[in-house]
Amino acid sequence: MPRRRRLDLRSLDDVIAEVRRLRADGYVAHGKWNLSQMADHLCGTMRVGMDGGEPRLAWPLRKVTGSVLWLARRSRWMPSGLGTLPQLTPPALEADDPAKIDRLEATLAEARDFAGPLPPYPLADGLSVEQWRELMVVHAQHHLRFLEPAGS
User: Fold this and answer.
1) Can you give the three-state secondary structure of the chain, one letter per residue?
2) Hey, how many other C-beta atoms are within 10 angstroms of the C-beta on 85?
3) What is the pLDDT along the chain (152 residues), one digit of tens a residue?
4) What residues contact residue 26 under an 8 Å CB cut-off, 6+ apart?
């Protein structure tokens, strides 16, 4: 299991600050993705929340994943290794791409300011915009934990 650091992000502004810190100071990746790959993945998941466009899971599966997402929000933790949709899996990338990180910062700010309404969410029913934001923070925290700031 790759090494992960402790991280306690509470808002999308905290996520933006952490992305900027990693970008400016450098990092060591302990997982399979670098910051740009995480940026692609996180942008994709936030776009689904704001724009829709992904097919919804069947109702029984939405009930199950909705419970898992509720637990993730409440515990502020997500398990590793669950996999993701193929369209949200970033391509291999050896070095960081500044444009991808810029796009992540812009998407995080857009999500922070998003007034809604949320389109039908593919994984769960009944999320409010604030609950969705909380979930996006926990999701970003989950991935960013695999990047250890340089000099730590």
Assistant:
1) CCCCCCCCCCCHHHHHHHHHHHHHHCEEECCCCCHHHHHHHHHHHHHHHHHCCCCCCCHHHHHHHHHHHHHHHHHCCCCCCCCCCHHHCCCCCCCCCHHHHHHHHHHHHHHHHCCCCCCCCCCCCCCCHHHHHHHHHHHHHHHHCCEEECCC
2) 14
3) 567 889 999 999 999 999 999 999 999 999 889 999 999 999 999 999 999 888 887 888 888 887 877 778 888 877 676 666 667 777 787 889 999 999 999 999 999 999 999 998 888 888 899 999 999 999 999 999 999 999 76
4) 149, 150
| Residues in a beta bridge with 147 | 29
pTM of the model: 0.88
Tokens 């704001």 belong to residue? 50
CA distances from 26 to 33, 39, 72, 150 (A): 14, 15, 28, 5
How far is the C-alpha of 40 from the C-alpha of 45, rounded, in Å? 9
At residue 111, what is the residue type? Answer: A
